[in-house]
Amino acid sequence: MFFQSCFLSDFIIDCLFLFRGLFFILLFFILYSLENVIIYKTLI
């Protein structure tokens, strides 16, 4: 039972790290896209 709970907590921590990484990538991508749109609109 102890090993199972340990495995579960490790799994949750891994998932949180993975989701945090994906979230940062998504956030960076959105900011990058917005910056490009703003630059594009100022050029026209």
Automatic annotation (TrEMBL):
The protein's superkingdom reads Bacteria
Q: Where are the transmembrane segments?
A: 12-34
Q: Under what name is this protein listed?
A: Putative membrane protein
Alphabetically list the UniProt keywords: Membrane, Transmembrane, Transmembrane helix
